[in-house]
Amino acid sequence: MNRNKRTGQQVRGSLTYQKLLDTMTLEEGLDWLIGMKERLVAKQQRERRYLDRRASRGTHTPTDDAYEQDQALESELLALLDGLIEQLQCDLMGGQA
């Protein structure tokens, strides 16, 4: 069994599973949050490119509206993740900022 250090997931073949957050060390929790942030940023960028391509062709559907709303939600979640990551980094350094 391998461990994905970036996401904190255990990998067994093509099957992955996640440790519960309350059972992770601070380092594991930090790695997991950083990995989650990276995946969310990639998702947001992928959706933005998709929306931009469709807009350049003059195509627009209700799904595009939903993706636009998702962009705002993803930005809020990224801000939340940034705060959690910052707090964990501070905790790892003994509370010193």
Helix and strand layout, with pairings?
Elements: E1 2-4, E2 9-12, E3 15-18, H1 26-56, H2 62-92
Antiparallel strand pairs: 1-2, 2-3
Helix pairs in contact: 1-2
Description:
This protein is mainly alpha-helical. It has one domain (2-92). The chain is built from two helices and three strands. A three-stranded antiparallel β-sheet has the order 1-2-3, with no helix packed on it. The N and C termini lie far apart (36 Å).
Shape: elongated
Distance between the termini: 36 Å
Could you tell me the radius of gyration in angstroms?
Answer: 17 Å
**Helix vs. strand class:** mainly alpha
Give the ordered list of helices and strands.
Answer: EEEHH
Q: Major sheet: size, sense and barrel closure? A: 3 strands, antiparallel
Number of helical regions: 2
- Spatial strand order of the main sheet: 1-2-3
β-strand amount: 5-15%
Helix content: 55-70%
Instruction: Give the total of domains.
Output: 1
Nearest-integer average pLDDT:
86
| Uncertain ranges | none
E-strand count:
3
Region (Disordered): 48-68
